[in-house]
Each structure stands twice: as structure tokens, then as C-alpha cells.
Fold each of these.
Amino acid sequence: MTLFWTKKREIIEIKAGTLLPLITFVAVILIWELTIRISGWSTRVFPTPVTVLQGFYELIRNGTLLKHSVASLYRVTVGFYLAVALGIPLGIIIGQYKPVKMLFNPLIQFLRPISPLAWIPLAMLWFGIGDQPAIFLIFLSSFFSLVVATAIAVESINPIYFQVAANFDFSKSEIVKKIIVPAIIPDVVTALRLTIAIAWLVVVAAEMIAVQSGLGYLILDSRNALRMDYVMVGMIMIGLIGLMLDMIMRRFVILKWQN
Amino acid sequence: MQNFNLIKAEKGNVTIGETAHSIGRKTENSTQHIKTPAAEKTKIGHIQIKGLKKEYINRRHAARVIGDPDVSGERVTVLDDINLEFQEGEMVCILGPSGCGKSTMLRIIAGFEKATTGQIIIGGKDVAGPSPDHIFVFQQCGLLPWMNVWDNVGLGLRKMQDKIAKEERIREYIELVELSGFEYNHPYELSGGMQRRVELARALAVKPDLLFMDEPFTGLDYLTHLKIREEVVNIHEYIGKTMIMVTHFIEDALVMADRIVVLSERPTRVKMVRKLDFPRPRNIVKDPGLSELRDEVFLMLGVSYVA
Ligand SMILES: Nc1ncnc2c1ncn2[C@@H]1O[C@H](COP(=O)(O)OP(=O)(O)OP(=O)(O)O)[C@@H](O)[C@H]1O
Ligand SMILES: [Mg+2]
């Protein structure tokens, strides 16, 4: 990613940007190793970095890690896209029309604080075991936040832009396409970043209860087999994918009209 | 500036029908009207304000939540029985103390807000709402920050079928405000003065019958202020449309206006309407009549002016 930068100072900045986090990670691994050596805990209880690395290798080789990662990512992707596809348009409508807001807002505010995990029993009863209950839970975890964030973003658009639209005789759909959508993009991207992180948190929890695959299931299954090294592999993988999702979201839109 | 001198020089040799500005929807009508003074009442740029009154409800307490619907409080009369008449093609400048309702009055004439009572008649018709024939240049910047200069200027031309004519029109108006070369810049990449010029170009590009400007020069440095003021005067002279401008600068009003209106403090009434027949280009210092009028207006607004 540094290939295209020509100015010397920028290369150095980007290098520092990758180097410093790397130092942190190396330090954490060292402390991890040292803690085990000093405390004298059994590696069965607290696996060393090397055993975890071995675990990684084994799980990659037999394809388990890939299978479970894909399963989790699939659920998050589907649930999240459903939430985006329904939540953002609903948010745009609620943000524009006061009566619609009065209709939906109390219900949304009431449902929002209920943890998606509280829905697990009902989700399993309604959708059985498999992808659907997990997707449903992901959807719940993202949908309400997205609706609320979008509606607030629409409400806080500078009213001058709507007056400009009225002055130049914009149609309803032009107002949405040329005023509302571009104006809310910065706020909505932030909301997407926050919600995908929550969705990723929820999928792991949901997989521990409702399904037989995914990284959450891998962790639970490994615990039952007393393989703490595999448990840690699962945890690290969750962290890595979470990092990746955030990076994708951050690059999602580069706003050329903002400095 | 040179741009305008060029246009003006051209104008002498060219019949009105051939100038760039006469291609627009309404211009043919307006030239007709100019020839037939009998049609005075229906001139599209003629404005009549009859018994305009505007009350706001002043909040008794702070909003408890965002959009708190409870705005109970005493009614404040902002505009109180305003009666005015502006002729087609006039440059009108409105002066008045801060908070007296100048912006409110302009928004009501432009159709963005409803009057409490009273009537606004433009070109013989009651104002029903905002119209693409009556363009408003906002007190704060009204450019859409996510669109570049080209798209902003083309905002009012979306319905033009002829692609080539549309592109030509956009280019013409970007040239008019001397911003060629900045077509693909976004507003944040332009200086405050350039942004104002883009907004002027966007307003003029639709060839509106009326142009409203709410303090178009605030926030500009002094030189840019004077330059854009000159541009507006030239544009007005060139297109001859009715323009109404709110300003805090008395000098602006005296240099630019065909007619000035001075408003009082709230509840606001018209304190003075004066038609200015001073020769142009105007110079307040050199024209004793203008300096006298300046002192009079300053006194009227509560300042004893010291030159
Ligand atoms: N939406 C509103 N609700 C309540 N009061 C309002 C509203 N808009 C304006 N006012 C009141 O109307 C009065 C006139 O406001 P306006 O913006 O027209 O003043 P102005 O003459 O343009 O002032 P300035 O020169 O400072 O721009 C102010 O006292 C303001 O408090
Ligand atoms: Mg104002």
C-alpha cells in the first residue's frame, strides 16, 4: 500500500504506522511467554505462544479454521447486509417525516436495548438450528442502531440544503439522491463501523448456543475437548477478522469533498 | 472584470435578441414588456408587498429535547405592516438593525416562509412557494459541498434536454464569474470569495426573473467584497433583472441600489424608501448628494457617522 507514495516523508509515516503496532504485538507475545515461564502454569491451562502457533498450523491444515471462519463471516455478512438494506432506507424515511418517526421511534427505542442474545431462545424456536437464527440475531444487533443513526443523520442535515433543493425545484427522489444520501454518508459510515463490530461480537456469542459451526462453536467445542490452545486460536482469529472488517469499512468510502 | 467590459462593449453592436442572456425562458416576454409599458402590472419582476405581518412565537424555556414541540411563549411581532413596491429590473437594497427581520422578509418574498398576514404579489401573482424563477442566495453558503463547481452551477439546469446547450450554459456562467479552470474543484477547495461567485453563477445560470441575496458579502475580505460588489453591479446592469439584497453595509446600498429601504427596530416597519438617481459609477465621497444621504441613513440606524 505504500507503493504509490512518492514523497519521502509519507513513506516514513506509513512505515511508522505499521511498525509501531507491530512493536505492541511483539511485546504482548513476549509478556505472554514470560508470564507462563515465571508463573509455571501448565500449558494445558495457559498455552504458550508456540503451542498456539502449532494449534493454528493444525487447524489450518485440516481446514477447520477456514470452515469455521467462513461460516461466521457468512452469517455476519448476510445479517449485516439485511440490516443495512432495510435499516438505512427506514432511517431515511423516519428522519424526513415526523409522523413516521412518531409511529416507529418508541418501538425502536424499546427494542434497541434488548440484547440480541436475549432473543436466542425465541430465535431457535422460530428458525431451528443453523444459519437462520444466527443471521436473525446479527440482523437484530445491527438493524436498530442503523435506523437510529441514519434518522439522526438525516435530521441534522443543514436545512439550507433543503431550501436550495426547493428553490431549484428538486423532486422527492432527487432530494434523496442528491441531498440526503451524500449528506449522511459520513455519519452512516461511522455507524456501519460501529455496528459491524457489534455484529461480529454477537455472532460469536450466538454460535456458542444456536449452531454447530463458526468460530464461536470452535471455541466452545475446543473447551469441551479441553484444548485451550484451540480456544486461543479461535479468539485470535476473531480478533484478526474483526480488525479486517474495520479496515474494509474504513476504506469503504473516501469522501473527496471533505478535507 | 475585463469579462464584463467585453460583454458591455459587445452589447452595443448586438441586438438584444442575440445576446447570450436572451435565450432563456422568460426573456422574450420581458423584452416585450419593456416595450409595452401598458403591461406594467404583470411584469414578471414587479413585486408588491401589501400589509405584510410576521409573528414568531418566542420560546419561554429552553428546548428540553431536540425538536421539543412545546414552543409555548409570547408572540413576537417581527414584521409589522410592511407595504412596499419594487419595479421590474430594480436593484433594491434593504437595510436595518440586526434582528429586525430582513432575512425573514426576504424568505417570505421568496416563498420559503409564510406570512402571518398580508400579501406578496410578484408579476401579478400571489407567491405560493419557492420557485426556480426566484433564486435565493443564502446568508450562509448554500453550495452543496459534495458537488463540484460544475455540478453546482448546473443544479438549476437539470431539466434542460439539450446536453450541448446545457454544457455551454454552465461554461458561460463559470466564465462570467471568472472561475474557468476550477470546474472540478469542490467548494472546500475554493476561497470564500470564490464560493460566493459560484453561488452567484448557479443562481444566474437559470436566468431567474428575480434574485434574492441575503448579505452576500459577509465573511469576505474588504477587497474581495468590493470586487464582487462591482461584479454584481455589472451583472445587474447587464441582465436587468430585479434583484433584492439585504446588507449591513450602508456604502454597498448607496453604491449599488436603485432603491433603498430602511427598516426600523422590532416590531419592524418601513422607516424610509428612497429611489436613488445618482449617476454611475457612484462615488460616495465625491458625490455630495450621496454623502448627505449616507449620513442621513447612518443617523436613522442610530449612528452619528464620522467620516
Ligand atoms: N424560526 C424562527 N423562530 C422564532 N423566531 C425567529 C425565527 N427566525 C427568526 N426569528 C426571529 O425573528 C427576528 C428576525 O430574524 P431575521 O433573521 O429575519 O433578522 P435579520 O434582520 O436578518 O438579522 P441579521 O441582520 O442579524 O441577519 C429575530 O429576532 C429572530 O429571533
Ligand atoms: Mg439575516
Amino acid sequence: MSNKDLKSTVYDRQVRVWGANAQSLFENSHICLVNASASGTEALKSLILTGVGAFTVVDGAVVTEADLGKNFFVEEADLGKSRATSIVEHLKVHNLFLKPENAIAVHEDPIKLLKTSPEFYSKFSLIIVSSCPSDILNEFTAFCANTDIILINVRNYGQLGIVQSFVKEQCIFDSRITPPFTDFRISNPWKELRDLAESLQPEKLDASDHGRMPWLVLMINALDLWEKQKGKRTISYQERKEFEEMTTQWQKAEYEKAVASHDPSKGNLDFQFSPPFENLDEGMRNIHRLAKVELPDETTHLFRLLEEREARMKTVFDPQEPELRQRFWVLTAALRDFVKANNGLLPVSPTIPDMVSSSLFYGKLRQTFAAKANADAQQMLELTSAYIPATGTGEPLLVMTFEEVYNFSTKAGMTLCLNYAPILTLTEKTESEANAARHSNLATMIGEVPDQVMDYFSLYEPEHNAVWIPLVAAADIFRQRHNRFPGQANSGDVVSEAVDNPRHAAVVSKEDFEKDVEDLRTIVQELCKQKGLSLSIASSDLVRETVRFAGGELHSVSAIVGGVVAQEAFKLLSHLFLPLDNTFVYNGLPGVVFTGKL
Amino acid sequence: MFNASLTHKRIFVVGAGGIGCEVLKTLAASGFRHLTIIDLDTIDVSNLNRQFLFRKEHIGQSKAHVSRSVLLERYPDAHIISYQENVKSPRFNLQFYQQFDCVICGLDNVDTRRHVNRMCIISGVPLIDGGTAGLTGQSKPVLKGKTECFDCTVHAAPTHYAVCTIRASPTQPVHCIVWAQMLYNLIFGPPESNFNNALDDGEKATPLMVPIWKVCQATNGVVSEKDRVDLWKRAIDVFTCSFSTELKERNEVLDKNMVQAKPILDLLKGDLDVTTLSPDTCSSIDETFVENLAVHTLPQLAKTFIRTFYDLSIRQLTQHPTQDTSVLFDKDDSLALNFIYAASSLRSINFNIKRETRHSVKAIVGNIVPAVASTNAVVGGLTVLELIKFLTISSPLQNDLCYTVVQMRESNHRLLSASAPADPNPECPTCSLTYHICDLNPSISLKNFVDSYIRGTLTIKGDFSLSVSTPSLRVLYDSEMEEEFPLDKSLSALGVADTTLVLLDQCCDTDTPVSCGIYFSLPQPTPQKRTTVSGGLPKEEKTMKTH
Ligand SMILES: [Zn+2]
């Protein structure tokens, strides 16, 4: 087996999820892990297994007993050695195709490195900051703000898992939302579809054809009849029954006429099909598809972003940008022009669902859609050329293939662009006006906190789970003051002590525990006042709960959030799917999840 | 919070695949030290993108054994037992299950999952079932009598297509692929693949559409030169007939609702004369990444069909001396897949249907579930966390938040959603039953079993019927038609053995669900105490009820 064949076999199962294009994007990515905690290592493991082409681990720590207790990818022999080196050695074997020079360990303090040589971090496609206190995270947030580097923060704090992502601008070619956006153009068929429907009107059919007519065609004709009778193409909810009745009568009358006038020399009638017909049932189940399909909000938003971009840059094409983004905006501009030229309609997708039909009619219908999808993509392709400047010698700076345009135009209702806000930690050194709005949004999500922990979560509003953001921020402030996390016995190792394992460092005594609770409570109070969050957070039992976590990682929670980070990385690197925007908080004990924009 | 108490818990991990590797790693890293692993499979190249306990040098070795040794390297103090066996084997009986605190199941086939689910219901051992497909997955606890079990909901059966669609009027790529698979099984498959084969015309069968073994035989594993010449001619004839002559005949008798098929020979005109091909000049496509995704030309497909037909004929005749020893199509059989790819593509061209790449054809025929490392990691983690909560929190079920069914969604707003597990379905064929554990030796006669055990010990009154569920459901006894059953035969002669589940239906109306299950569990033979059962009177009987 050649290397290429081996590669295609190894990655076969996942290429079936995201396609060969996305796979090659992963293979050309360089990922940086800052701090090799258990959750970060778990995330990196999944990325390496998936075939990411290069990775760097930056970590100034050495392997301790605590690491052995919670991280699978270190062993006894690594004790006292560079953690970055150990993790890289253990993980690199999981990508058979990795070039040795692309597995890099940097045994240095990540922040010192950022301050002394920031250009070191500029080469990465994605930086994962793992289980770092928020003062470290803030530095990376500031660094990534004006770059195209994706930043993901992953934090395992006791039973909590937090994931936050940032990317300046995320262009998504196909969000793959379910159910997908569809417009079968029943209310406004294009010429060829209308011609097909007209040739298949009930009065033109043989008796045996009525039951074999695809519902889509039947409904186009029924809607025309409705318009003749009512003078409008819309059907209100109350009118649905009437519409169904009208279509039933029409179909039945035409069927009976056809039976009566049947020419026996053409063979016997096929009585397999007689009213009531299944296609009408199918059509009524799809009645909502008879309404005119509006442009999706995401598309409208996308066009607004395009306008802003043009106003800002005076052009669509920017030669400085990564090629993928150049393509995205050129295609988006072509899409906008297409929509303008086509009365607000998106290009047609060739996919139609399975339906009761003869293969002849179904085949014709499918071909009509396929031909239109091709024609629309062709029009799109022509529209792109206006936005692609040429070189001095007249060569276009970007070559668009029909296939590429077709892939974009047939998914047109599912393309979008996300702009992220910087990761919010509540420990930012400077306060902006934008952040004040975000704090008040957070305050609304969290609301008032009851004293009892279980009361809070039994209400089961996932938004409430955002409460852990200020609590973990307070724990980080505590750590800055005491050089240890609340509930942790000794100072020292910044982010490594775990409560879950026999090998971890001791937790504090009962008296010290209570003292930590009170200290943390004061910090939470200050923080809530400062950010306008409810003071009930400070008086609740959640503070005590936070001290119980003692800043440690639990392997099972690390595995979960590590997997979530890797999934997010795939979505962001592939420009497919709908990625997290921008915060995920998981509380493992009750199994409560918050996902939202902070 | 969670710690030393986990060291002594005994966990049975069924399946050491994508989820299994994650679960085993997370169990060990969370402090579990008593693990039992079972997996029948060996390590394949396509596992390496996610099953991180395995490496290239392990390919071909047992998943169970390799995962055991890799875990032991990292955790030398762990006690790990591994089995490279089918979990449905009778040795994994009730006593076996009862030694565990929990079973974790990470399998991809419904049949085995149902078996493990049933064993957990009968033995009362908690089960956590994990599954993934692409970027979505779930982890679900099964606690007898308290939560929904795997059988409480009906699992989608594979889609069946109407025979006439496959034979005469395909409209989708999948119809052509199913047709190609049927063609393969008819000519190269074992005898059972000819039952219910839509392409088999039985008596009317064209002399071409018959199993290859009816055409010629290998002598001492060698196909003679003369036969080879005939087989080559036959490959061309099957090609001509399947994609041209037969369709021309069909077009002539077509009712007007059917699409006219385009004969391949007409389309090939000028490009290729298949009759001039010979085994020396005709080559098949290669299985490379590029070929996998390529769109091949008509002459390439025609050559591939003829070539693979010929190669398969010789391979089947030499490797399987009779049709009985042949096997059904397997997606990893590259030659067979090339045949199916070529045949289905040609048929798609016949009917003007979109063609699938070889890569997609493989997914469709092989029922391949897409799999990603990260999803397995999340599901494995959730599964172990659920387990830890279950084992460490006292009376957990009073707080229904502790048990969550978690699903991940690829593009949904919320990445994970948790909900309390559903209640058991009272109509469930598995967990709604009461199970009786029967330690009678199945050498007793059917009559004795009915009279002394069913009527005696279980005190069943009135009419009832008995059936055995494995390997397929069949009736053992019906009190209303007693004379029709071999009452004097022993149960073992009727297929009942240790680990057999006999279903007792107390209602004469066959539509009503079975009312209880009798599970044969023989006492484990020990040197001191030999069990001899004579006369069929039970010595000991354990009854377990679901509620
Ligand atoms: Zn059930």
C-alpha cells in the first residue's frame, strides 16, 4: 500500500463526515497548545489522531505526580522531565504521516515567550489555551484580536468544563444545519418547472397517471387553480382545509373524466391507482412549502457584512487575506448580485426529497431541478469575474472552477459569516464600553441565585450555568492574591493539583476551607458589584461549591471538554458546520449545559 | 469527590473500538483498576484515526488483547482481563455478568447491543450504552425497571426497496447499488443469497444469471485454460446482457410511465469494442485515493466490470470449491467492491441517474458509520462520568438530574443536551418481562419440563405456548396443540442449552406480548458438587422480577 492509499484508508471514516477538502485543511494546519493540562492534552490527542499536520506544545512545567494521576499521556518515567516534551513524545505516534519536524515541544513559560517574541505565535492556525488562569488567557486574547489565528480556551475546573472561542471572522461555506434550508419554488416556479407542471395538469393526464404525479408538481398546479379562484397565491392556516378540498375535488373529477374517456385499445386501466391519492396527502404534509420562501436571516446578515466590507475596503477582493476568505467574499458578492438579478431568490439546489411518483415523472422533475441548479451556478460563475482583479499580464488573481461555485451556490441558504467578540473573562485589565454591555447581558442570563445549589439547577434554565464564569474569575483573583486556588492546600504548581485522585496534593483542612470560602465570597462580592451582576451569587452556596473544586482537573470532565474543543477546532478549521459562538459551560454533576454568546 | 472507592469496582467493557478505547482510558485515568474487555475484532488500518490505544504495528492483532497490554503498560497495578470472543457466546452467561458493578457497551451493531441489553436486564447489572455517528453521539444509562432499555424503542431496520424498483425502474443511486450487490450475491455469493434475490428468475433464469459454480468447477483448486477462455467470454456476455440486450427488451415492453433505459453498447459505440478485449489487455481501475473519488469514463467502467467479473469468477472457483463455502459480499473485499462500483455506475448510466464515487458506493453497501475521534472522546467521557456518579452518589435515582441522556449535535445551538432518562416502556419485549432463572439440566423431556417446572414450580395455569428466541424465534410447545410437539424428546434435543432464553406466552392470542422469560442457567460444575438432575424436579429456583 502506498502512503497515499494508507492515508485515505486511515482517514476514511472521518472524510465521510467533512469531505476531502476539509481533511486537507486540517493537514495544512499548525496547532499550538499552551499548557499541557489534561483537558488540553485530550483536545490535542483528538486533533493529532485526525491528521493535523503540525503541532507545538508550549509549557514551562515539569511532569509531576499530579499529572500522572489525571493525564493518560505521561508515565512514571517522565517524572521531573519537561511536560511539553513528554506530551509531544507520547502524542506524536498517533499521526502516522506526521513529519518529525512538525511535532514541536517548547519547554518555556508561554507568557514570557509571548512577551519576548510574539512572532513565535504568529505562525499558528489555532492556539488552544488550556486550564490557564484568566490573566494568562487575557494576554492571548489581546494577541489574537488582530490576527487570523483562532483562539480556543479550555478550562476544566473540578466538575466544570468551560470552552470559549474567538476568531475575528468565521466564513462558513455550508452550515449543515438540520433540517437544511430548502426552497422548492412551488410558489414561484421558474420557466422550465412551470412548463413541466403545465404539461402535467390534471386535465391532461391519463387515468393511471393521477396517482403517479409527484406531489410537488400537483401542488404547483393546485396553487395556480387557487390563484385563479382566489386571486392570490397565499393560503392562510384557516384556508388549508378549503385548499385541500378544492384539490381533492379537482383531482377526483379529472380522474373520473379520464376513466370515462379511456381508450381500451391502449391497454387495460391500471387500478392500482385510484382516489384518494397518496400524493395529495404528501402535498398536504408539505403545505408549509407552498408559501414563498424568504431569504434566510443569515443571508441578509451576510449581505450586510459584505456592504460594510465594501464600504471599509472599497473592494471585495483583498490580496492580503487568506485565499479561502478571498474566495468566500467573491462568491458572496456574486450571490448578492444573483439575488438582485433574480427577484430576491437564491440559486436552486438540485436535491429533491423522495416522493410517491412514477420513475418517469420523478426523473423529469429531478432533471428540471438539476438543470436549473447548473444554470444558476453558471450564472454565479459569470458574476464572480467582476470581483476578481487581474494581474499585470491579464491573468485573474483567483481562478474559480465551476465545481467550486456549484458547491457554494447549491448551499446558498446555508452560508454565513460570524464575527466573534473577544473572550470574556471578567478579569480584563481595561474596561471597554462594549464590555459593559456584555456584563449586563451576563447579569440577565444569570439572574438571581437562590441560596441552595440544587434549587438553582433544578430550575433547569441552561442560561443559569453562566454563573460559573464570574465564580471561576473570582477563583483566579483569589489565586493572584494567595498564590493558590481556593480549597488548594499548597501554593506552587499553577494549574495542576487535582482533588479527584489519590496522587494529588492535599486539600486544605476544615478551618482553612471555611476561611477560603469567606475570602472567596468577598472577592465574588467585589466582582459582582464591579460588573453589575446579582449579589446573590456571592451569598449562595455556589461559592462553597467553587472552593470544593480546589482548582483541580477531573479526568472524565477533561475528556469531555477536550473532545468538545477538538470538535470546535474541526468546525472552525474546515469552515463547515455551525461552530460555538462563543461560550460553553458544562457542569458535570447535574449535567447542565450553557451555550451562548457572552 | 470521586476516588479510592472506584478502585475495587468491576467494570465490563463490551467493544474496544472507538468508544471502547476512550472509555477504557478514562476509566483507568479516573482510578478504576478492575476491568474486563471483550471484542471479537482485530485492528484495522481504518481504526487508527480514533482508536488511539492501537498503532500501525498492531494491525491484525486482537483489539481486546492489545488494549489490555497498552493499559497495563501505563497502569501496571490494574487487573485487566481480555477476551477476543463474541460476547454472545454461552460462556458469558448470567454468572459472568453478575460479577460486575456495571457494563459499558460501545458497539456499532444493533443485534449485539440488544443481546448485551437483555443480559443486563436479566442479571440486573446496570448498563451504560454509548454510540456515535459522525459528530453526534449519545450516552444512555439502562437500569432495569427504572429507565428505558435499548429495546424499549424500536430501532430502524435496514431500508428495503421494492423489487420492481430495483429490477425495472431505479430512480436513485442507491437502487443501482442494491441491484449491483444482488448481482454479486447471485453469481458469486453463497446459496442463501439466492433466496429473495430480486434478480433471481428461478426457472426462467437466463443461463447467464446463475451462480458461477453451475458454469464450471475448479479441479484441485485450478481453473483450466479452456474454462478461463469460457469465463472471459462469459464476462463479456454478462456485461452485454445486463447493460444492453436485457434493457432493450425491457424498453420494448415498457409502459409509458417508465423511463427508457439507454443501452451501454449504444453509448460505447466507437469508443470501445468489448469483444476485442482479452485478459491481457483489459485492466480494472485501481483502489487509490484519487480513484476512490474519481468519475470514471464509460470505457473504464466497462473494462472494470468485465475484468472484475472474470477475476472474481476465478477467485471464487479456486478459493471456494463449492457455492456453500462462499461468503456474502464484504465491503472490505476490494475486488468485490470494484465489481459493485462498476456495475452500479453502469446501471446509473443506463437510467440517467447521478453516479456515486467508489468512496460513496462503499459507504452505502457497507453501511459504514462515519466516525471521528473527538465525538468518541466526548461520549466516552460522558459515559464514565455517568458511571462515577452512579457508583458514588447514594440513592442517585431520587435525583433524576443525575442520570442524563446526552446527545451532541453537530450544528445545533447547544452542543450537549442532557435530560432525565425516559421510563421503561410497559410494552417492551425485553424489560417488561419477568425472568425466571432455571437451573434444570436440559436433558429432561419437554413433557417433564412443562408438567413439573412450568405447571409445578411456576404454577402457570391454563393455556400457554413456549418459544425459543435464538437463533431465530421458533415455537417449542403450545398447550392447545400438545399432540403436535415431540413431548418425549429432551429439551437439549430441541435446541435448549445453558444460556437459552425460553419465552412463555400465557395468552392463546398470538398478538399479545409474551408474559415471561425462562433463562437456562446451569450451575457451574465444580469438582465437589456435581449437579445431577433426574426426574426434572428443580432443586433451586431464583426468581427475579422487573419491579
Ligand atoms: Zn425495555
